[in-house]
Amino acid sequence: LSLKTFLLTFSENIFPNSFVTVTDLLGREILSEKISQQKMKIDLSDFPAGVYVVCVKNGNETTRKKIVAG
């Protein structure tokens, strides 16, 4: 079983121009999507197993988390 799909759940306080960006550890952007609903699926099946950084930009606030896809 491959764990390359992640479900992100956001609070109700999402601003209209909020984005999720996923980069590899070298800083290369592999995915960027506008947040349009409270739950969002990130599918990294087309990318190699490894560690990625998920960055959520919500207004003036930025949150980064590392995830392991494999």
Q: Give the overall form.
A: globular
Across the major sheet, the strand order is 3-2-5-6
Catalogue the unreliable spans. Answer: none
How many strands appear in the DSSP assignment? 6
Through-space gap between termini: 9 Å
Helix content: under 10%
The Rg value, from CA coordinates, equals: 12 Å
Decide which structural class fits the backbone. Answer: mainly beta
Average pLDDT figure? 90
H/I helix tally:
0
Strand content: over 45%
> H/E order of the elements?
EEEEEE
Q: Major sheet, described briefly?
A: 4 strands, antiparallel
Kindly describe this structure.
With 70 residues, the protein is mostly beta strands. The protein has strands at 5-9, 19-24, 29-34, 39-43, 50-58, 61-69. It contains no helices and six strands.
What keywords describe this structure?
70 residues; mainly beta; four-stranded antiparallel sheet; two-stranded antiparallel ribbon; 6 strands
Question: Any chance you could write out the topology, listing elements then pairs?
Answer:
Layout lengths: L4 E5 L9 E6 L4 E6 L4 E5 L6 E9 L2 E9 L1
Antiparallel strand pairs: 1-4, 2-3, 2-5, 5-6
Task: Write a concise synopsis of the structure shown.
The chain has 70 residues and is mainly beta. It is built from no helices and six strands.
